[in-house]
Design a protein that fits this description.
- This protein is of the alpha+beta class and 289 residues long.
- It has helices at residues 3-6, 109-112, 137-149, 154-174, 181-195, 204-210, 214-225, 229-247, 252-258, 264-275, 279-283; strands at 11-19, 25-31, 34-41, 44-48, 51-55, 59-63, 69-73, 80-87, 102-104, 129-131.
- It folds into 2 domains: 3-174, Jelly Rolls (Sandwich), CATH 2.60.120.10; 181-283, Orthogonal Bundle (Arc Repressor Mutant, subunit A), CATH 1.10.10.
- Helices cover 41% and strands 20% of the residues.
- Strands 1-8-3-6-10 form a 5-stranded antiparallel beta sheet. It has a 5-stranded antiparallel beta sheet with strand order 5-4-7-2-9, with no helix packed on it.
- The radius of gyration is 20 Å and the shape is globular.
- Keywords: DNA-binding, Transcription, Transcription regulation.
Length: 289
Amino acid sequence: MSDNERKFNPIVHYANRLACRPGETFGPRVIDDYQWLYVEKGKGEITINGQVHPVESGCLLGYGPEVPHRISADTDDPFVLFGLHFAPDESEYVDRPHHPSVRNIEHSPEIVHGSSASDDVPNALIPPCSLVGSWALPFFEELVKEFDRRDEYAPLALRAAMIRLYVRLRRTANADSAPTRRNDIVERIRTALEKRAEEDYRMEWLEEITGYSHDYASKVYKEIAGTSPHSDHQRMRLQVAQRYLETTGLSVTEIADTLQFGSIHYFCKWFRRMSGLSPSAYRSRKRMI
């Protein structure tokens, strides 16, 4: 364990999820803290200190203060991003404003199309770009949910959630990542659940998908994915609801009907429990990453 890892005592300044529009771009810009970006789905390019990184679902990116970067969504399949602004050591940022400072910079070839980049830049404790997979998604969802709570316990909960995420990242990087039959089961289940995200969860799905009993398939899924199939399906259903709120003009009632909730009251209660916000409040949030 490095000295930086031993001192890791993060303070989260901002956390959100953004479904980017086709071709939407942020920057070139710099920030005054550290940022991790996680790609939930879709595609795009993220340029960090002159290096262009084509990204897709499951990619994790990181950079530090004053590191030039640009975020560009694909025109056909724009990505959905989680953005996390933080400081690795709370003591170094005790007097800073809560909201991160983002500053656009001049468009220049060395920033956007550079072929090489200096290693002497803050690296946010992770590689500039890596493919970590879908297991990280629940961690980022928890961070956004805790950030939106904004109560007296939120800073502590955010620190704990980020430490858990970082530990999992380091352990995963050190573990044997060879694919196994159990991983294949998880991917088959996850793919099927995504296709049925607008439906109510049914236990018989797992037997249909895998040929194993629900209990065995669910156990394997939870051991590898870190959450149950039902919880993952709830998360996927929330993503569908968020996408309707972000990209369509459907009313909250129409979205509740589309997702087969039966009543707007139940849908709103479920949405707030899952995301920490009401559907209307989620729809009106500022577009930022």
